[in-house]
Amino acid sequence: MAGAPPGDLERFELEEFFAKHEFSAKYLMCCSDAETLKVSELLAMADDECRGLWENLTCGYTESEGLPILRQEIAKDYPGVSHDDIFCFSGAEEGIYATMRSLLTKDDHCIVVTPCYQSLRSVASVVCGSLSTLELKRDEQWKLDIDALQSLFKPNTAMVVMNFPHNPTGALLTPDEQQAVVKLCRDHDVFLFFDEVYRGIELPGVDRLPPIASLYEKGISLGVVSKSLGLAGLRIGWIACRHKATLQTIAGYKHYLSICNSAPSEILALIALRSKDRILKVNADIVARNTKLVEEFLADPRFGRLFSWTAPQAGCCSFMAFHGAEATAETGSKSSEATAWLPIADEFVESASVLTLPGHFFSPAQGDHFRVGLGRRNFPIVLEQFKAAVLAKFGDGSTTGGNGASRDAE
């Protein structure tokens, strides 16, 4: 049962939906993270130094900013950033919360790119006096409109918040677009909070973007081992920022939250980061294979009449559009229920134990979408179960009436 959120925060409906279904549904089609590892598999990757740290580890308090050797390892992925510019948190969520609570005030205006993970918008919305959202659009292939972004700046704008590689669409900025964003933020002297938790998994032919903390003196990079590395249970995340006073302000907020991280998790995260190229290669291959399976799924007229997507460029997520109104047009069912995915998501959990994540949790404008996670090995099995659930509800498109489709595929 969901409790009341703290203070003036809205209910975290996305996480409440997960809490309700994630550990009971058999087939998870909406996972945001990549394939995970057993602790034994992770320990097998340890070098001599990490193995010694693990075997001699005591379970006492740790340094609030994070194990120094861990922060040194993290900093290697941020050109021009030192370990003193890294501060560790208990997962990415704590980093989001601490940053917005400590840097924004009621006198500030904030710009948030949506659709997005709910807390990127909801925390900013209660801290700031005003908030503007810039909605990425399916018919524009989820590309960021730089001119539209520029038009949202106000004299009291204090921060721009965005996430690339993007959750839930899998979109990615081009290097030129990233530089244009940096220039806008520098010209307006605002913080640029850049959620980079999916950095490291790019589809074939797609270049990895440099981290924002390396490009911009007021850039704040959010990282974590949960997503691309698939190690969500370790609860190790971090902020990278070269603006020392800013980092100190964010760090101070942690004393009211987790205080420090888990000692075993820090060592396991260190092992993973020293083996990250190996882990990322495995997970990127899984995402690439699963992306091809979805393309094949959409090429099948039984399913292509109902669903479409813009193929992802990076990360573990993709966003599927549901064309329910078109598929059921001749039945006269043109209500909001025909286009919204939420009731169907609930139905599929009950009827087929298949969990999908409705798009309205990322933005009210995306109710006819749902997130598809591409990072798990068992995705082929899950996709087959989803196909069966779709056919049971909508038919194969060859007949009209009942719950079946209303038109033949063209």
Report on the architecture of this protein.
The chain has helices at 13-21, 39-43, 48-55, 68-75, 91-103, 118-127, 146-151, 175-188, 212-215, 244-253, 263-274, 276-299, 301-304, 324-327, 336-339, 342-352, 379-394, and strands at 27-28, 86-89, 109-114, 130-135, 157-163, 191-195, 219-224, 237-240, 307-309, 317-322, 354-355, 357-358, 369-373. The relative contact order is 0.16. Residues 327-338 and 400-410 have low confidence and may be disordered. It is α/β, with parallel strands linked by helices and 410 residues long. The N and C termini lie far apart (46 Å). It is 40% helix and 14% strand. It has two domains: 13-35 and 278-394, Aspartate Aminotransferase, domain 1, CATH 3.90.1150.10; 39-275, Type I PLP-dependent aspartate aminotransferase-like (Major domain) (Aspartate Aminotransferase, domain 2, 3-Layer(aba) Sandwich), CATH 3.40.640.10. The strands form three sheets. It has a seven-stranded mixed sheet, with helices on both faces. Strands 9-10-13-12 form a four-stranded antiparallel sheet. Strands 1-11 form a two-stranded parallel ribbon. The chain contains 17 helices and 13 strands. The chain is globular, with a radius of gyration of 22 Å. α8 links the parallel β5 (157-163) and β6 (191-195).
